Amino acid sequence: MAGGVTTSLRTISSHRANGIRVLWLAAVLAGLGLLLILSVAIGTRSVGWADIMAALEGRIDSIDQAAVAARIPRTLLAGLAGAALGLAGAIMQGVTRNSLADPGILGVNLGASLAVVVGIVWFNIASANAYIWTAVLGAGVTAIFVYAIGSLGRGGATPLKLALAGVATSVAFSSLVLAVVLPRADIAGGIRSWQVGGVGGATFNGLSHALPFLAVGFVLGLLSARKLNSLALGDEMAAGLGEHVALARAMAALSAILLCGATTAVCGPIGFVGLIVPHLCRLLIGVDHRWLLPFSALAGACLLLIADIAGRIVARPNELEVGIVTAFVGAPFFIWIVRRQRVRDL
C-alpha cells in the first residue's frame, strides 16, 4: 500500500515537473520569436513592420528594406551560432562532469581559430568548406590535448585542472595566432577582426556551407541526451546499466566539436555562451539532459541574439561585436561560478 502511494506521488511530481518545463519551453520559444523580430528591426536604421514584410517577400524598394534584407542572414547566423555554442557547452559539461566546461574556457574555440589562421597563412586555404573542415580538425585536436593535460597527476581530470589547462592553452594559442599573422600585413586586419567573434557580414552562402556540419552536430548532440544521463551517474554505474562509456563519450564529444568548429569558422571564437546558458537552464528545468540539451540550444540562440542587438544599440552608429558583449557578461559569471565552488569539489 505504502509503495503504491509513493509511486503515485512520484508520478504526480514528475507530471508537475514536466508541466513546468513545458511552460518554460513556451516562454523561451516566445522570447526567441520576439528576439528574431527585434534583430531584424533594430540597427543603425530602425525600420517598420511594412519594411520587414516587404524584405521577407523579396521586395527591395528602399534603403530600409535593403537594411532588413542584410539583417536576415545575420539574425539567422546569430540564432544558429548561439544554439550551437549553448548545446556544445551543455554537452561538454555532461561529458567531463565539469561545471566550468565551455568551448571558450577549454580552449576549443581558440584551437579551431588557430587552425584556420594557420591554414590561411601557410597553406593558402580559401574556400568556405576548407575553413570549416580545418576549424573542426583544430577543435578536435585541441579538445583531446586539453583533456589529456587536465588528466595528468593525481585525481585525474578535475574541473579546476581542466579549466586551468584550457585557459593556459587559450593564452598560448592566442599568442601563436598573433605570431602567425604578424608577418602577413595584407590579411592581418581581416583576421584580427574575425578573431573578435561576430555575426556581422553574414550571408546565405556562408550559412549554406556551415549548415550540414551544424545539422550533424545538433542531431548527434540531441541523440546523446540519454547517454549523458547515464554518464552523470558515474562510469561504473553507466557501464552496469549497459552503456558503452567510451562510445557514448566519443559520440557526444564529436557533436560538440562539430558545433564549435563550424561556428568558429563562420563567426570567429565567441566565448562564454556555452558556460552561461547550461547553468541558467539547469536552474529552470533541472539536470535531465533530455530537457537540458534542447533548452540550452534555444537559450543559447536567445543569448547571442540579445548580445547582437545590445551591441548595435550601445555603440550607435557603430557596433560592438557579439564576442565583446558576451565577454563582458561571461567573465564575471565565470568568476562567480569559481567562487561558489567548494575547494574540495575543484
Give me the secondary-structure topology.
Blueprint: H1 2-41, H2 49-56, H3 63-96, H4 108-123, H5 128-150, H6 159-181, H7 185-196, H8 204-223, H9 225-231, H10 235-240, H11 245-267, H12 273-285, H13 289-314, H14 322-340
Jot down its keywords.
346 residues; mainly alpha; ABC transporter involved in vitamin B12 uptake, BtuC
What does this structure look like?
Belongs to the binding-protein-dependent transport system permease family. FecCD subfamily. It is a multi-pass membrane protein. The chain crosses the membrane at residues 22-43, 72-92, 104-125, 131-150, 162-182, 202-225, 246-271, 291-310, 322-339. The structure is a single chain. With 346 residues, the protein is mainly alpha-helical. It has a single domain, classed as ABC transporter involved in vitamin B12 uptake, BtuC (Orthogonal Bundle). Helices cover 78% and strands 0% of the residues. The protein has 14 helices and no strands. It has helices at residues 2-41, 49-56, 63-96, 108-123, 128-150, 159-181, 185-196, 204-223, 225-231, 235-240, 245-267, 273-285, 289-314, 322-340. The protein starts with a helix and ends in a 6-residue tail after the last helix. The mean pLDDT is 86.
What is the β-strand count? 0
- How many individual domains? 1
**CATH-scheme architecture:** Orthogonal Bundle
What is the C-alpha radius of gyration, as a whole number of Å?
A: 21 Å
The CATH C-level name is: Mainly Alpha
CATH topology: ABC transporter involved in vitamin B12 uptake, BtuC
Cα end-to-end separation? 44 Å
